[in-house]
Amino acid sequence: MTVLLGIDISTTGAKALLVAADGHVVGSATTPLTLSTPKPLWSEQNPYEWWDGVVASIRRVLAETGVNPGQIAAIGLTGQMHGLTLLDEHGEVLRPAILWNDQRTGPQCDEIRRRLGKERLIQITGNDALTGFTAPKILWVQQNEPEVYTKARQALLPKDYIRYRLTGAYGCDKADGAGTILFDLKARDWSPEVLAALDIPAAWLPPTFEGPEITGRMSREAAAVTGLVEGTPVVAGGGDQAAQAVGVGAVEPGIIALTLGTSGVVFATTPTALIEPEGRLHAFCHAVPGRWHFMGVMLSAAGSLQWYRDTLAPDMGFDALIAEAEAAPPGSEGLLFLPYLTGERTPYPDPLARGAWVGLTIRHTRGHLTRAVLEGVAFGIKDSFTLIENAGLGAIRQVRISGGGARSALWRQIMADVLGVELVTVNTTEGAAYGAALLAAVGAGLYPSVDEACAAAIRITGQTLPSPHAEAYRAWYPRYRALYPALAGEFAAVAEVMR
Predict the structure, then answer these.
(1) Catalytic positions, please?
(2) Is the distance from CB of 374 to CB of 326 less than 8 angstroms?
């Protein structure tokens, strides 16, 4: 049996997934990772812990499945995007990695816009400067930790640190590279203009590769500690969202990947490097060679429901809450929920945005409150769909939904009604690691293309079509859309009072 290994470095764990050449999952192991928040707004992790977690997960999945390491044809990598890992001239880590959800770099984002101009920045990279991205993190270290900056010789993304530990070679896939906003989106490589404007040495950045390309081979040292075979090829892989899209088969225009997890992510493949003129959508390279994608991000999607349950109904299970919500009518009798519990990214890049229920009356029950949360998240996801449609992508034929929130039949139906499109579920539930394994299968020559790998491995398992309730949601959506513009000034004023 030929097997592929997908490795995923998420914020919460280091995952090793074994997938057979025909696409079925052979085994999986995850080692938890710790998150550090040493100051308000900071979010960091220790890259050495990533490596220890990867080693532990690989050894465990091999032991539990009995797979012979010689059966592994190739390894694919994926992981959290945007994180900054700085290495010195000896390849040693200089400081904890600054992660995607770190919010310390607001002043550096303003400086990037000043140096390049916002319009020019978006024209080159496809994106505005946001605190989550890698470039402002590099500037922050330059300005706040000069003793670290002067020793730095390599800047890597999280999964690419694992690549270095596996192979001894530096490399980055083009999807993850685009998420640094140091990329020329159309050229699919580092931008000399952006690097020069930000005074970032080009030598710090690794060579870039398409997702299925082989970037190196397992070193003798890494083989000894992981139990894998020296010389096993390691492919480029992709940032977590691009790999997730491969893992559900969202690799062609018109098929959207919707991840309804703690955050909500809308991923739309594009045939060319399309750009939303105001930078309200992220525009990155795809892990599929020669393709790009739009991405919209809601910071508190299923996280809104989790907060609601934990805070207001901690003794109830989610199924019981959803059952009550099912009894409430579409539109929750005029009750609207803004899901901005941790600020927002798409379509409003506003860290000061806050959550709210609007329209409460004495008639409203817990079921109405719950349904309003589900509907508010769906309306927020529709904001991304609206931007994607207006940016010139064309018709959306199908949405492939995954994540914890997708387990709710009611939430899937509300999503289908609000979005007005067919929603489907697929047979794969391992997410980004599964996509990384499929990219590895292409790199190993088991499939001629990513499209053919997805067609062979991924099957539709469920379908949700819009119901007659879609008409009611068409009436409520404009009312939802009016709330943020009406309240944005007050959100800022509240934040000022709280200082």
Answers:
(1) 240
(2) no
